[in-house]
Amino acid sequence: MSGGHVLALCGGVGGAKLAAGLAAILPPDQLTIIVNTGDDFEHVGLSISPDIDTVLYTLSGLNDEKRGWGLADETWQALAMLGRLGEPDWFKLGDRDLATHIARTHRLRSGESLSAVTASLARALGIAPAIAPMTDDPVRTEIETADGRVLPFQTYFVAEQCKPVARAIRYAGAQTAKPSPAFLHALQRADLGAVIICPSNPYLSVDPLLALPGVREKLIALRVPRVAVSPIVAGRAIKGPLAKLMAELGVGADVVAIARHYRSLIDCLVIDHADASDAPNIAAEGVRAVPAPAIMRTHADRVALARAALAAASG
Q1: CA quadruple 174, 175, 178, 179: dihedral positive or negative?
Q2: Residue 263 pairs with which residues in a beta bridge?
Q3: Which of 169, 165, 151 is CA-nearest to residue 36?
Q4: Greatest extent of the chain over all pairs of C-alpha atoms, in Å
Q5: Calpha distance 164→148 (Å, rounded)
Q6: 31-73 confidence digits (pLDDT tens)
Q7: pLDDT, tens only, 225-261
Q8: What's the rounded Cα separation, in Å, for the pair 269 and 64?
Q9: Buried b vs exposed e over 17-35: b needs ≥16 C-beta within 10 Å?
């Protein structure tokens, strides 16, 4: 596409990578990145926003590429001391990462909104495009498991390493939360040129955004290109528990299921060349398939996939 504002919806590592690719090729004032906050939680008195931090660290070039999360060259002295003092240490808080959480917690308790705090952190890290949370209100993703428990997301994802069998997912607080001002503004912009749903987990990272009042309806009503990038390649999740989760929810772990999940919300699904043979089945869901190299191992891969997503938006 050659003009118009781009709204990127994302969460987690895959979403952050594509967001970084988009940020590398679009003018800063032409991109708004809205980030999932269903993963947010309170831990040892700190307000933690894992997906926002992943996006901030990735776009600022501070992220740990090898580990896939957190900051590069991190140290862990504070975490070790927390454990020694009898505090929970299952959630890995690095020493420099702690500074982000302390700053966020301090500013939130001083009365700033999560949107204002996120924008301030982004500026401090030299990030030019707008990054905003999906909402300033608390929304918490919860996993209903086969053994009858309801697990907060981080307990399921980190403490129990996604081992419990999922039966349903819910987004506590979403019904009464309001989309953030930046999210609403981006959805209503007269110059909105495209919506890109990044290759994030649809159930854990994108659906929380869609659960906010009015968001799904606004996306359906948009008359601009809406493109999703599949997080599934050749029946496997690029990262994380998506394929396992889809199987447990009774949904086939393939690109056709991704197209079906986003049906009516998107016009086009970018898929990896490995899944090109599924294009007719995707078309049967009312979605156009565009094959492209979809695995992002390097910065060049991120830029190439971002270009492919924007080209798909151009039709």
Answers
A1: positive
A2: 266
A3: 169
A4: 58
A5: 10
A6: 999 999 999 999 999 999 999 999 999 999 999 988 888 999 9
A7: 999 999 999 888 877 789 899 999 999 889 999 999 9
A8: 29
A9: bbbbbbbeebeeebbbbbb
| Distance of alpha carbon 265 from alpha carbon 27, whole angstroms | 26
Distance (Å) of CA 101 to CA 42, 123, 247, 254 = 10, 16, 34, 36
Quote the pTM value: 0.96
Please name which of 16, 59, 28, 199 lies closest in space to residue 130, comparing C-alpha atoms: 28
| 289 bridge partner residues | 269
Q: Is the backbone of residue 226 left (phi > 0), alpha (psi -120 to 50) or beta? A: beta
Determine the pLDDT at residue 241.
87
SS3 (DSSP) at 216: helix
Whole-number Å distance between alpha carbons of 238 and 241 = 9
Burial (CB < 10 A; 0-12, 13-18, 19+), residue 131, is buried
Strand-pair partners of 32:
7, 130
Residue 83 to residue 111: CA distance in whole angstroms: 31
